[in-house]
Design brief:
With about 180 residues, this protein is mainly beta. It has two domains: about 40 residues, no CATH class; about 130 residues, Porin (Beta Barrel). The protein has two helices and eight strands, in the order H-H-E-E-E-E-E-E-E-E. An eight-stranded antiparallel barrel has the order 1-2-3-4-5-6-7-8.
Length: about 180
């Protein structure tokens, strides 16, 4: 219908009719080669290969009641799948001597989503949200909001973060990880 209207409008205006045939654009040999590159590993603008699986180990101190209570140590690990700037992972941590805990070490399991931001100095800043459960005296809901930084060292990285968690905990942690 639209091509007929365009043809009638151009004839009424006294202009020659437009060429309405559909043509397939010609592709250069380079463009044809680029279409076949979808199986190759993705690389960033600096030629580094993107690694998708991140495995890291964490440890540090957790300060109860916003830093005004007693401190307890923690350790844990995380496995995450990395997209271009977002990580989605599972984290497990153990906290020593939390208040109201019925055991010496309190397990915490979280699903974490981390947004990474590249900085001008080659580091990555990170903002994480975690939701899951902890078991101080019984299973309860657990949350975590964290700010961190990562220093890439090839396939390995060093990390540090400050996290605000359930039980008014401020957690200062350091980690070492590797990307596959």
């Amino acid at each position: 219908m639209l091509p007929t209207l365009v043809l009638l409008a151009s004839l009424a205006a006294g202009a020659p009719p437009p060429d309405l045939t559909l043509r397939r654009p010609e592709l250069s040999p380079r463009a044809l080669h680029q279409e076949d590159d979808y199986d190759e590993p993705q690389e960033d603008e600096e030629g580094r290969r993107h690694r998708h699986l991140l495995v890291s180990a964490w440890g540090g101190e957790a300060f109860a009641r916003g830093g005004s209570g007693r401190a307890s140590s923690f350790y844990g690990g995380e496995v995450a799948w990395a997209f271009s700037e977002l990580d989605v992972g599972l984290a497990a941590s153990w906290y020593r001597s939390l208040r109201d805990a019925s055991r010496a070490w309190t397990p915490v399991l979280l699903t974490r989503v981390t947004q990474r931001f590249a900085t001008r100095h080659g580091f990555e800043a990170a903002f994480s949200l975690g939701f899951g459960a902890g078991h101080p005296a019984g299973w309860i809901g657990w949350y975590q909001v964290a700010l961190g930084i990562r220093v890439p060292l090839g396939p390995a990285f060093l990390g540090g973060e400050i996290a605000f968690e359930q039980y008014d905990i401020i957690r200062l942690g350091g980690g070492l990880g590797v990307a596959f």
